[in-house]
Amino acid sequence: MTSPLKNDRLLRALARQPVDRTPIWIMRQAGRYLPEYKATRQRAGSFMDLCRSAELACEVTLQPLERYDLDAAILFSDILTIPDAMGLGLKFVAGEGPVFENPVRSAADIQRIKQPDMGSDLGYVMNAVSTIREALDGGVPLIGFTGSPWTLATYMVEGGGTKDFAKVKGLVYSDPKAAHLLLDKLADSVTDYLNAQIESGAQALMVFDTWGGVLAPHDYREFSLQYMQRIVDGLHRERPDGTYVPVTLFTKGGGQWASWIADTGADGIGLDWTVTLDSIREQVGDRVALQGNLDPSVLYAPDEVIEREVARILGEFGPHPGHVFNLGHGIHQYVNPDKVKVLVDAVHRLSAR
């Protein structure tokens, strides 16, 4: 695989090709644990103002790369940009997180949802992608991302975060036709959204199925996985210049379904800390790369514990190609930034071939 990148470890690992050391990036690597992020966020005025400014989104995307020897940048944005563009009225409430002023609760609500235009409604995301890609100047690849249809639907139906998923599961069981209509619309929009990110310069893609793991296995296949399959099938993964854009699917709590996820044709599977990499490799072989899977709470531990856990995970995966080191979910906001350097340096040192 030819690449103009100075550091193409991530793309090589996702293609299951040999690398000189295991690549690492971190979910939410640009975020609230960094004092420089907090300063930029304050300057922006609000979280969505930060997302909507290509310059500020670029600034915070690059902040962790200035501190750490990371192998990828990930677009700074939010998974809820698509529901916001569908007219649900997204706002962020202190202590509550994201809230929708106009949640969808019925088939009639779902019928009224507009399909967002990627240029006019979500052009600010594409501006951020192209701005970041230019600023990276071929240093490391840029990862674009989205939430999965199921995960977006949970926020849209619940109206925000939830612990019991009662409203969205109530919709699934009482009116599955309406649930499928919502997921259909979201799958179309997510596919268009990711393809627009590819056109704007994204070099790899992540689909965050944060809440797929709350479903029973048969419901997971019907209401989450089949829609991620549609997205994978609809992506323009081959650029006109011949470069390939890999996609990783991450279902939190979904490690037991790794073989099903591998069947989608995705290039990578993200895994949380509730499974071991060796057990997943036994299920999927070398059909896909595996990403993960350090418990984020390990970053509260002494340095030697972080290094021990890194060594354990690298040992679990073994000497095979196709491992991208990451946390099993997003980094916590209260983690000491110095601990991230310990993690990144340990991954590179202990995995050096």
What keyword list fits this structure?
TIM Barrel, two-stranded antiparallel sheet, 353 residues, alpha/beta, 48% helix
Describe the structure.
- The protein is an alpha/beta fold and 353 residues long.
- It has a domain at 29-273: TIM Barrel, CATH 3.20.20.210.
- Helices cover 48% and strands 10% of the residues.
- It has 15 helices and 9 strands.
- It has helices at 9-14, 35-44, 47-52, 54-67, 81-88, 107-112, 123-136, 149-158, 166-174, 176-200, 217-234, 258-262, 277-284, 303-317, 337-351; strands at residues 73-74, 90-93, 97-100, 142-147, 204-209, 247-251, 268-270, 289-291, 323-324.
- Helix 8 crosses helix 10 (176-200) and helix 9 (166-174) packs across helix 10.
- The longest helix has 25 residues, at 176-200.
The biggest beta sheet reads: 7 strands, parallel
Strand order of the largest sheet: 1-4-5-6-7-8-9
- Assign the CATH class of the domain at 29-273: Alpha Beta
CATH topology (fold) name of the domain at 29-273: TIM Barrel
Class derived from helix and strand content: alpha/beta
User: Ends: how far apart?
Assistant: 20 Å
User: Would you count the extended β strands for me?
Assistant: 9
Helix content: 40-55%
SSE order, as H and E? HHHHEHEEHHEHHHEHEHEHEHEH
